Amino acid sequence: MTGDTTAIQSGRRVSAHAVCTAIRDDIVSGVYPPGSRLGEELLARRYGVSRVPVREALRTLESEGFVTTKRHAGACVARPSEREAADLLDIRALLEPLGAARAAQRRTEAHLKVLRGLVRLGQERAHRGQLGELRSLGDWFHETLAQASGSPSLAGLLVQLRRKIDWVYAADPGRIPSAPPGGVRTESATVRAVAAWEGHGALVDAVARGDADRARELATAHAERSLAEYRSRRPFAVSAPKQSVNTARVKN
After folding, report:
1. 206-232: average pLDDT
2. Contacts of 77-84 spanning 24+ positions with Cβ under 8 A
């Protein structure tokens, strides 16, 4: 009896994780746009599960910031704000260089093999103008680089951060750095893609040499370019002054 109960509980946890991943992917891809209601019964039918794993998945997604729960409306897809989008890029500019430096110190030959293969594919697609295939390759590249850091905690943060950024961009394509307006493939978009993957190649070379300083420098430059492009597209929203906290009267 105990064994059966354990198996059921284990199965439920796996199911909740799978449902969470599926809902998150659908949110990021735009199946559920910001503000959409996420009814438990509807989700249960869509993913072929009971409402229990759906409820657990929604709690996880709420803790990650993808979902909000309102008293009378229930669970809904969150609406990312301009400030949140800018903050995510700021956080990325801090964490990705750290991950790259750690990868230069801790990577394995298996990591290098995958990274080099992805760079080769990415550069080929970029030069051919096959821009539609680059996002998935880029996600795979950055996830592998994060894993090469040898720190599961840091890798988890980096993967979750990029997933959140993808969602923010998908919610409003005008925010996407390096993306052609309206999805139209332009020469400038191809040039940017080629430059980006050349940068990825240089980063992998630094990681392969064990040059942590150079890896950190290249990752910082890449993150700063993305942030600069974002700010050039959203000058008003991003340049809005943040509220300051007056601590002059605070006493210990």
Report:
1. 89
2. 77/27, 77/32, 77/33, 77/34, 77/35, 77/36, 77/38, 78/34, 79/34, 79/35, 79/171, 80/34, 80/167, 80/168, 80/171, 80/172, 82/234, 82/237, 82/238, 82/240, 83/237, 83/240, 83/242, 84/168
Per-residue buried b or exposed e for 133-171, using 16+ beta carbons within 10 Å of the residue's own CB: ebeebbebbbbbbbbbbebeebbebbeebbbbbbbbbbb
- The per-residue pLDDT for range 89-141, each reduced to its tens digit, is 889 999 999 999 999 999 999 999 999 999 999 999 999 988 888 988 998 99
What does the alpha-carbon distance between residue 38 and residue 78 come to, in Å, rounded to a whole number? 11
Please, what is the Cα angle at 138 between 162 and 62, to 5 degrees? 25
**What is the reported pTM?**
0.71
